[in-house]
Design a protein that fits this description.
Blueprint (H helix, E strand, L loop, with lengths): L1 E2 L10 H8 L6 E4 L8 H11 L6 E5 L4 H9 L4 E4 L4 H14 L8 E4 L2 E4 L4 E4 L2 E3 L3 H12 L4 E2 L1 H8 L10 H14 L7 E4 L3 E4 L4
Parallel strand pairs: 2-3, 3-4
Antiparallel strand pairs: 1-2, 5-6, 6-7, 7-8, 9-11, 10-11
Helix pairs in contact: 1-2, 5-7
Length: 207
């Protein structure tokens, strides 16, 4: 199982899980060891040594011997939790891994250039002007604000906001980009979201 920050994608076998890792769109992976076709140890080895994935990896498995745990850590796992487990403990471990990797913060305000985003209240202001964003518009701006001056492909935006297994058409990204641009124009004349033809989008801010 591989879990991105805002949505989740499930791989039901090791081979599919290994392929999903190549996408590079995930913030954290939860990996079972007893997978069909290719076991979790092999998947973990491919991720770390061949694909050079740096995302946090938590092993969640019924294999509870010291030998199993040491093998998992030696292959590059960041944490190891055995079944049965309490849901609260799993969530706590996930949060700890994301905080350690810098992907999760206790801060509720995200400040980028002249934008202030209240993540809890889902409120956006630009130079003290209120900006009304709905649903995925807000999520899209947050994703851009978390990655300023970084090129993000349409596919990565789609997988982040809608999920890898969503049946929604990829063109929905263009619709929400257009909607967000229109909303931004109500508070600023600057065109913050740049389109790089056949490459992706860039949220351009002055450092």
């Amino acid at each position: 199982m591989i879990t991105p920050f805002a949505s989740s994608t499930i791989a039901h076998d090791g081979e599919n899980g290994e392929l999903l890792g190549k996408n590079g769109i995930f913030d954290l992976a939860i990996l079972d060891l007893m997978l069909p076709q290719e076991n979790g140890y092999d998947v973990l080895g491919h991720w770390r040594t061949e694909q050079h994935l740096e995302l946090p990896i938590l092993i969640l498995t019924a294999k509870d011997t010291l030998t199993d745990k040491l093998r998992g850590f030696n292959l590059g796992a960041d944490d190891y939790l055995t079944k049965p487990f309490h849901r609260e403990e799993l969530i706590a471990r996930i949060k700890a891994l994301l905080k350690r990797s810098g992907l999760l913060s206790d801060e509720t305000l995200l400040q980028v250039a002249d934008f202030t985003i209240d993540l809890n209240r889902r409120i956006v202001t630009y130079k003290k002007q209120s900006l009304q964003l709905n649903g995925k518009e807000f999520d899209l701006l947050v994703y851009f604000a978390q990655n300023p001056n970084v090129i993000i492909t349409k596919e990565r935006i789609f997988d982040r906001l809608w999920g890898f297994e969503s049946e929604t058409a990829l063109t929905v990204v263009e619709v929400y980009i257009s909607n967000l641009r229109k909303k931004l124009k109500t508070v600023t004349a600057d065109q913050s979201i740049k389109t790089l033809r056949n490459v992706g989008y860039l949220f351009e801010v002055n450092k």
